[in-house]
Amino acid sequence: MARGKIRFGLTLPNRGVIIGATTVDEMMEMAQWADNSPAWDSVWVGDSILAKPRLDAIALLGALAVNTRRVKLGPACFASTPLRNPLILAFQWACLDFMSKGRTIFVACKGATEGGGLFTKEFAALGIDPRTRARRMEEAIEIMRLTSSREHVDYEGVYNKFRDVTVLPRPVQQPIPIWVVSNPNLAHAKDVESGLQRVARLGDGWMSTWKTPSEVRRMMEMLRGYAQQAGRPLSDNFEVAVYHNINVNEDREYALKESKRFLDDYYSVDYGEPMLRRWVAMGSPQECIATIREYLEAGVTTITLRLTGYEQRRQFKRVTEEVLPAFA
């Protein structure tokens, strides 16, 4: 886990085609730039079906798979995991891993029921009881792991059952790597416990967001304990990922204002300044470097960065040339 180096992922704003923040051509261009720059290790996209409309994650990742050659590819939280048929999802992901020559990382997420999206309508439209979403996500993880590593498999869960299934084409990675999202309110002890226990049992990595470096460090200690209890100690290759945002501008207050406008539009939420300051690396290159370095020191191995501005190409250039070299 503590490898002394942090990897960087570029999160493309695929909801941006709805709010006018980006275009398909621009996202493809930036993905190719990242692919050609050793500073970037991965490219990510957001996921939602109806609650927060955007370009479909799997469709977009398929396009990225054939337009890049090196970077890892994945969803920055696949929020629709409990909403999709897991066997079809396993098939789609196997195809994506095959197309990308083994460059995928699946990030399982149970989704949300509140916070800037039409979550109630989404679950109702798709015929899913939101109270079942955690177990549905777990079954999806189990099915994706099983079908990506074996043929002629049987499965019997609470919501999914099948016999003698083989998913073709076979993914390059067998089994596929799966990180698990846990992003609980730290004031709710039961949510913290259940979320981190799930990561310990099922994850090759852990992704979170909105957490300060000190909170990440605290949760990592808890996660190690749960992993020991589960008889599955965290390996040296276990990934600790933070989904973050960045806006490089010497005028820190302007960076805050621009980030607020972008994120408010993106999520249809009125974010307060305290949340933005903990969720966005902002200010001069030196200020952004200092923020990211705190996450490195907390044990984070991958930090994904979404550019919170309407000049996506300009922000990409500044981050790539003025921020990331500090961590080479």
Give a quick precis of the structure.
With 328 residues, this protein is an alpha/beta fold.
How would you explain this protein's 3D organization?
The chain has 328 residues and is an alpha/beta fold. The protein has one domain: Luciferase-like domain (TIM Barrel). The protein is built from 12 helices and 11 strands. The chain has helices at residues 16-19, 24-35, 57-67, 86-99, 119-125, 133-149, 189-202, 213-229, 252-267, 273-279, 285-297, 312-323; strands at 7-12, 42-45, 72-75, 106-108, 153-156, 161-165, 178-181, 205-209, 239-248, 280-283, 302-307. Strand 8 (205-209), helix 8 (213-229) and strand 9 form a beta-alpha-beta unit. The chain is globular.
CATH architecture: Alpha-Beta Barrel
In N-to-C order, the SSE pattern is EHHEHEHEHHEEEHEHEHHEHEH
Structural class assignment: alpha/beta
Main sheet characteristics: 9 strands, parallel
Secondary structure layout plus pairing:
Blueprint: E1 7-12, H1 16-19, H2 24-35, E2 42-45, H3 57-67, E3 72-75, H4 86-99, E4 106-108, H5 119-125, H6 133-149, E5 153-156, E6 161-165, E7 178-181, H7 189-202, E8 205-209, H8 213-229, E9 239-248, H9 252-267, H10 273-279, E10 280-283, H11 285-297, E11 302-307, H12 312-323
Parallel strand pairs: 1-2, 1-11, 2-3, 4-7, 7-8, 8-9, 9-10, 9-11
Antiparallel strand pairs: 5-6
Helix pairs in contact: 3-4, 4-6, 7-8, 11-12
